Amino acid sequence: MTNAASMREEAETFAVRALGFVAGDPELLPRFLAITGIEARSIRHAAAEPGFLAGVLQFILAHEPTLLRFAEETGTPPAAVGKALRELPLGNDDHERST
Predict the structure, then answer these.
(1) DSSP alpha helices (H): ranges in 2-92?
(2) Against a cut of 0.90, is the pTM above it?
């Protein structure tokens, strides 16, 4: 496995862990569902879509108290969330934007 592929796989694993964090929180999950427009029963299907896992990390990064709680509960440095985000599809600015 190439280094880039390995880094992406690690980022995906990290993002799945973050999704578990969000899904397991009775306050965060409804907010996440409302913001994304996804129904709870559709999360598993949506998780296979490009950009979904990046969206989970963006959700965590968008609210500092959530980021800090995630970092504390998982023993992860807050900067690791942004680092993982950049390794995922649609998680960085290296894509074409519509005008």
Answers:
(1) 3-23, 28-36, 43-46, 52-61, 64-74, 79-87
(2) no
Cα–Cα dist 66/47, whole Å: 20
Q: Which residues have C-beta within 8 Å of that of residue 50, sequence separation ≥ 6?
A: 89, 90
CA distance 32 to 28: 6
How far is 30 from 22, CA to CA, in rounded Å?
9
Q: Render pLDDT for 21-41 as a digit per residue (tens, 0 to 9).
A: 999 999 999 999 999 999 989
11: Cβ–Cβ under 8 A, 6 or more apart, which residues?
53, 83, 84, 85, 86, 87, 88, 91
> Residues with Cβ < 8 Å from 81, sequence gap 6 or more?
14, 18, 57, 60, 61, 67, 70, 71
Tens of pLDDT, residue by residue over 51-76, are: 999 999 999 999 999 999 999 999 99
